[in-house]
Amino acid sequence: MKTTSSFLLLSTLLGGLLFSYIFWDKWLGLNQLIYSIFIITVTFLNSEVAKSNKFKIYASAHLLAAVLVVVNNSVLTSVSYNISLLFFVGFAHYQAVRTIYVAAMATTLQFITVPATLIKRLSELKIGKFDLKPVFKPIKYILLPLFIIFVFAAIYSGANQIFAHYLETTFTGIYNFFNNIFGFIFQDLSLPRFMHFCFGLFLTAALTITFYNKGIEKLEAGCKEKLQRVRRDKKTRSLWFQVVHTFTGQIITKKMALKTEYIIGLISFISLNLLLLCVNLIDISTLWLGYKPEGNFSSDLHDGTNALIFSIILAMAVILYFFRGNLNFYYKSKTLKSLAIAWMVQNFILIISVFIRDGYYIEFYGLTHKRIGVLVFAILCIIGLSTVYLKVTKEKTLFYLFKVNGNIWFVLLLAFSLVNWDVFITRYNLSHSDRVAVDAGYLLSLSDKTLPLLDQNRAKLHYTPVKDLFGKQIVKPKETTFYSELLNERIGYFKERYQNVSWLSWNLQDWNTAKYFGVNQQ
């Protein structure tokens, strides 16, 4: 343990120095991959961490996300990088955890407990025959009171201006005292750079040192994936039950008999099936079998899509409510399950309508991030409904749903990060400019990686009316020279930025753009 503590503390120091060197005053790119390799290596060499398949899977996933930051360099890759880092650290240090949500909570716990973890590790060190434990033992009596005093001092400062003035004067005096004594030592040291180094120490410690209390694993251990019939204890009442009962009496808190709950579910699902059948028949006749845009076309598609997605999410919530417990084992539940499955099938039809609506939107207006987002959300709804179907037919728990869907969402996040969406959108809209309205203003708002494509298609960067839409206009006309000048400004800004970028901020997309415009990096 003491050898491990020495290794982790040394790694934390090296991690802080590395963090300060590769991230200070740098753009994000290759430096993120370097830091990830360092964190994965330290965790792999940590003897306290088991090198299980789970460790290898999430380490590989995070490494892929770090590589994608260098290759695609987009907001989505940055998001997938940070999320995959949370999951990797959580699953590496707490391998009994089964869901990505608890893994993220475990990583958050490590961030919160960094001071206590560092003190514990430092107390385990020995310098020769000198034991550091007696030195750090009194700190635990000081640390919590100091934190409490700091919190309440901040609160009282906000409540009382005179107290805030005296507190500020006190801290200023303490700062000047230490500055006069040690200022000459650190006169060449940048305080912001030093704070950046301290943040690197804190971050590295949180990502590499396991919090010694693993109670979060025990917390999740009680969650089951298979539903079991449970007898209700009428005598045992929770605090929440007592609070609700105080205000509502027996209107809400009275437990429904299983037969009553079955009848309510039966009426609900029959009604919902009939209601959704009407909506689907209307969509099939008016949307699927020949659609002619008229009136406020954009608003109809946009509002209709939002409403349908919300209804699908609500549908899954209703199904989960009725099949949350003992109703799954009721002898007449087969009829209810059949109705629920029929409603799920109808919701699949509803998702097809969402795809068709979004397809028309893209056909007339071109691609945007939001329209792609609708397609992605529809795919997630399909996955959600599929797992809800498994939950109902296989009698699974809500925990099972969270576990399976969480893993699928994470895989999809990495999969979608493989695509360079800004370039994909720009290339699609410009290549289909003969039949979609080119919103030049939107294309010029995308990232620098699209600049070569825009420069090659300058002639298309002008106002284009919507084709085959009865002359309806969606963007305000601008002269071609306006967009050309705006593109020149973007290119000039990129050249200026790229010439001052360090090799640590290198990424493939910026490199390709710089190569196209003949810009050299310092």
From TrEMBL:
Q: Which Pfam families match?
A: DUF4153 (PF13687)
In the UniProt record, does the keyword Transmembrane helix occur? yes
By its UniProt entry, which InterPro entries does this protein fall under? Answer: DUF4153
Respond yes or no to whether keyword 4Fe-4S is given for this record.
no
In Swiss-Prot or TrEMBL terms, this protein is called: DUF4173 domain-containing protein
Keywords on record: Membrane, Transmembrane, Transmembrane helix
Q: Which domain of life is it from?
A: Bacteria
Instruction: From the record, give the transmembrane residue ranges.
Output: 7-24, 30-49, 61-94, 100-119, 139-159, 194-212, 262-284, 304-323, 335-356, 372-392, 404-424
